[in-house]
Amino acid sequence: MVFCAAFGCSNRLKKGNGISFFKFPKNPVQRSTWEHYCRRSSFTATNHHTLCSVHFSMDMFQYHSSKFESLGLNFSRRAKLKDDALPDIPLMEKENTATRCSK
Ligand SMILES: [Zn+2]
């Protein structure tokens, strides 16, 4: 099962929902920025971890189907991030922290 490593994000790989998943980059500087973005304490990404496409602005993509759909084209190629892409959409804050200690 492919899912997203970002804190509070419950997106999973599912056909037709338009969300793509990206493996963490090999570049150590870029990789640590991705890890930091996930906001998980002492989180180290492995090759199994991925971030989903909702965390990247359109500028970070080389290809994105919605870019082509907005032009009226049917573009079925998978979304592809730029080589130096960084997640730049702020993570949602958890609003309800009252139940934090209940378990
Ligand atoms: Zn996500």
UniProtKB/TrEMBL annotation:
Keywords: DNA-binding, Metal-binding, Zinc, Zinc-finger. It holds the Pfam family THAP. SMART domains: DM3, THAP. The keyword Transmembrane does not apply. GO terms for molecular function: sequence-specific DNA binding; zinc ion binding. SUPFAM superfamilies: Glucocorticoid receptor-like (DNA-binding domain). This is THAP domain-containing protein 1 A. It comes from Mizuhopecten yessoensis (Japanese scallop). The lineage of its organism: Eukaryota, Metazoa, Spiralia, Lophotrochozoa, Mollusca.
